[in-house]
Amino acid sequence: MGGDCYYVLPLSHNPFALAVGDASGKSLAAALMISSVQSSLRTAASFVGSDAAAVLRAVNSHTHASSLADRYATLFYGVFDGTTRTLRYVNAGHNPPIVIRPDHSIIRLQAGGVPVGIFPRWIYEEGTAQLRCGDLIIAYTDGVTEALSPAGEEWASSGSERRRTKEARNALVTSSAQSLQQWMNSRGGARRMTRR
């Protein structure tokens, strides 16, 4: 039990929203807080879902009013329009999701503001990313970056970011392909997948 969450929400007229968050603290207190943030997020998204900045303003206001003074949550909220391949987003103090292009170039989704719940009112900056075919978005919480090696070294501090993101992309592609192949085999599928 903890304070991490992810959420995908279909919105009207084609776009869908995605969110990744992490409440301050640990265990039950963090789980209760992130549950409240998720509830606020669902409510705000149902009214103004495609306006990422308005959604985060509403979530921030509710979180500040309903939480203890030392409690907050980091939150990334994005709205993807599949017709235009545009991602409009707000990052409220969360680990910036990474867009990895097929050429292994990296874009960090950083625009936004402070974590929700710290101030009663905050104006969030909305960012935009034009996504291309083959782009991979990796959204994560600090549980990934703070993962420890047997030597006690955090994953985020080891090696170059470019190497780690390339390894992550390759691992995700390989894992997805293996999962799909296993599913096809379990259903009696005759085709084999080929990797390009």
Number of domains: 2
The biggest sheet amounts to:
6 strands, mixed
CATH superfamily of the largest domain: PPM-type phosphatase domain
CATH class of the largest domain: Alpha Beta
- What is the architecture of the largest domain at the second tier of CATH? 4-Layer Sandwich
Which blocks of ≥5 consecutive residues have pLDDT under 50? 190-196
- Fraction of residues in helices? 25-40%
The helix tally amounts to 4
Write up what this structure looks like:
With 196 residues, the chain is an alpha+beta fold. It folds into two domains: 4-152, 4-Layer Sandwich (Phosphatase 2c, domain 1); 159-196. Helix content is 34%, strand content 23%. It has helices at residues 27-48, 52-66, 142-145, 161-186; strands at residues 4-10, 16-23, 73-81, 86-92, 98-100, 106-108, 112-113, 127-130, 136-138. Strands 1, 2, 3, 4, 7 and 8 form a six-stranded mixed sheet that branches. Strands 6-5-9 form a three-stranded antiparallel sheet, covered by helices on one side. The radius of gyration is 18 Å and the shape is globular. 29% of the residues are buried.
